[in-house]
């Protein structure tokens, strides 16, 4: 394992964004300490380390703190550049395309996934599911271009866009469980279907993925809390 220089990740187990940081560290074989945060009663360390957003994940490294999951992944890739393959593509155009789609994931697609769990009424839920499926269809097409026939968006190894999308796979399993429909389907999205299996079973990923049943219970609690809160 690479030298850690006192690396910590402040996180919360259900968070797909925390998974990004942990997967990137695993890909680079970096030793780190994972610190589980109680987001109902945030620690002084979290509030001090991320005073602007007060959110996880936060990466602590050598006395410095880095926030926002995609920025953390890029930081890890640059700091441990000599460890394992690069997470971001080396080609400038491919790097730009990966960043574009990762931004789409966070700015648009994530909101559709979240809405499938929290939407009130069947029509709102159907609209959210349709938007989530639209995103998956776009990823199916983009995978064909970026992977060049290899197992991952990043080629032979997991890359930036794999991490950006793949961290949501367990939540997709939960949504499929609640909606009783398949979002990643061998018939509709055959490339993504194979990719999802390869990503989830990768040595850098499989040990940090939360349990689907535990996540489903958390999802139910999240929905109940959201419906009780005025919005």
Automatic annotation (TrEMBL):
- The first-level EC class reads transferase
Keywords for the protein's UniProt record, in alphabetical order: Cytoplasm, Detoxification, Transferase
Main location per UniProt?
cytoplasm
Documented EC number(s)? 2.5.1.18
Molecular function, one GO term? glutathione transferase activity
Q: Which domain of life is it from?
A: Eukaryota
Gene Ontology cellular component? cytosol
Query: Which CDD domains does the annotation name?
Result: GST_C_Tau, GST_N_Tau
* Residue span, GST C-terminal domain: 91-226
Q: Give every GST N-terminal domain span.
A: 5-84
Compartment(s): Cytoplasm, Cytosol
Q: Name one GO biological process term.
A: toxin catabolic process
Catalytic activity field: RX + glutathione = an S-substituted glutathione + a halide anion + H(+)
Give the protein's biological function: Is involved in the conjugation of reduced glutathione to a wide number of exogenous and endogenous hydrophobic electrophiles.
Q: Which family does it belong to?
A: Belongs to the GST superfamily. Tau family.
Q: What is this protein called?
A: Glutathione S-transferase
